[in-house]
Every structure is written in C-alpha cells, then in structure tokens.
C-alpha cells in the first residue's frame, strides 16, 4: 500500500476545527509532504500522522509564536520564524516508519566458517595437564 496524502478535512478533524480554509490546508499539506520527503522518500503509508502534525503546527501557529502577553502587548518569536519545520521526533518517527534507524546486529562471521577448533588439540592441553604452580587446573 502506498502513501495517501491526507485531505484538508482530515487536517480539520486532527486540529478539532469545525471550519478550515481548504486551499490553505491543501497547500500546507503539500509542503509538509515535501518536507517529510527530505527525510524519507518514498513516504511510508503510516506517515500521515507526521504530515498532519507538521501541517497542523503551521496551520494554527504560522508565525511560531512561543510567548504572548495581551496587555500591554508582547510577543516572542524564534529566529527565522514562520513556515513549516520537522522536529527531532518527527524525523525519528519517519525513519522508524520506513524501517530505518534503531538498533541492529551485524554478524561478521563468514557463511563458510567451520565451528571446529582452529588450533591443534593434544594431550598437553586441558584438565590433568601439568601447569606452573598457581596457573593450573587442580
């Protein structure tokens, strides 16, 4: 199954808004998809949640206001304010959904490796053999 872009109506449901500007929502969704594709391409079909999160942030807070006081007016915006952005967790989620990232194991043993010992085994090695005092097997 391939990724299906969310609709403006789905963004409205995600944000809990009874009415939504369809053209603006469609534009933000398209831009959010393009931004997500910079991390993972093609997008996995479960990436809808990340796309809605990115587009939703930009829809409800386009200038990224992080602090606001109403009287006597005060607003704080981060540098380079406005626009869409991916958080660290958005990037991690996209990579995880695509099956990338996380822990993995690499087995360096060749497929043709023989499990038998590679040194000569003899009577001079092992239990019952003579060792220097303090080093032997009793």
Intertermini distance = 66 Å
Biggest sheet strand line-up = 1-2
Mean pLDDT: 79
Structural class: mainly alpha
Task: Explain what you see.
By secondary structure, the protein is mostly helical. Helices cover 33% and strands 4% of the residues. It is built from 4 helices and 2 strands, in the order αααββα. It has a two-stranded antiparallel ribbon with strand order 1-2. A hairpin with a 4-residue loop joins β1 (67-69) and β2. α1 (8-15) crosses α2 (22-36) and α1 packs across α3. The radius of gyration is 30 Å and the shape is elongated. The mean pLDDT is 79.
Give a topology summary.
Elements: H1 8-15, H2 22-36, H3 48-60, E1 67-69, E2 74-76, H4 88-97
Short description:
By secondary structure, this protein is mostly helical.
Can you tag this structure with a few keywords?
about 140 residues, mainly alpha, two-stranded antiparallel ribbon, about 35% helix
